[in-house]
Structures are given as structure tokens and as C-alpha cells.
Input
Amino acid sequence: MKISTKGRYGLRAMLDLALNSKGGCVSLNSIATRQNISENYMEQVFSLLRKAGLVKSIKGPQGGYTLGLNPSSIKIGDILRALEGNLLVVDEKNNEVSKDNTFEYCLQLKVWNKINESINRVVDLLTLEDLMEDYKKINDSQSLMYYI
Output
């Protein structure tokens, strides 16, 4: 499985929104500028995120986007699935592997299903709040200056 640009940019944009909203709206232009991503592309990404209920849009001069849920309730898997669809490496369910085809059935049980389960477990354990905390720790440690 390879995460597309839409998924990678969407995660960056959601983290940016979470870190910069501070209870108010954040303009798409400001997110696009900070993340060096085309505003038109961000509109496509945020349209999918809005449909999934992960963000809310507010119109008007003071409008923009806010998170649709608390960051602790937004799983990274929710964001990626909204932007990418399913996160399966090999979607054997569409091919309906028969037990008679022992090679494919064995691969499905012992390889593809386990990889799919691992991916889903990781992205569903991580929340947007987890990423925010990690970002703050990384950012704080890089901004420390020691003078002698």
C-alpha cells in the first residue's frame, strides 16, 4: 500500500488545523501557505474531510475551517480512509479467494490479511491529539538554544 499525495497532504493539513485553530477558524489559504501546498488542492482535500465530518466549514469574512470533532476522537485511520478509501494492501475480498485455490487462500490468510490488520491497527491507535503532542515535543526540543 502506498499513501497518495492526497493522504499525506491531508494529514499535514489536519495537524496544521489542529495546532492553529485555538478555538477559532483557520483559513484554507493560511494552511496551504504554511504547508506549501496549492490552495486548489487543499480545497479538494478539505471537501472529502468535510464530507467525512472531520472538519466543519464556516462561511464569511471570519470563516474558515475548524475540526469536526475533538482531536482525541479523530483517528489517523479516519483521516486516511476519508482521503484514500480502504487501506488494504491486497483486497482479496473483491476476488473472493476460494479455499480450493490453496496457494491464494494461504497467502490471503497468512500474509495479506495480517498486513492489512497491522496497518489498520496502527492507524486506528493513533489520534490527531497524539500527533499534536508529538509535534509539540519535537518542535520544543528543536527550538531550545543553549548559550555558554
Notes: Helices lie at 5-20, 28-35, 39-51, 76-84, 92-95, 102-125, 128-143. The first helix runs from residue 5 to 20. The mean pLDDT is 89. The first strand starts at residue 55 and ends at 58.
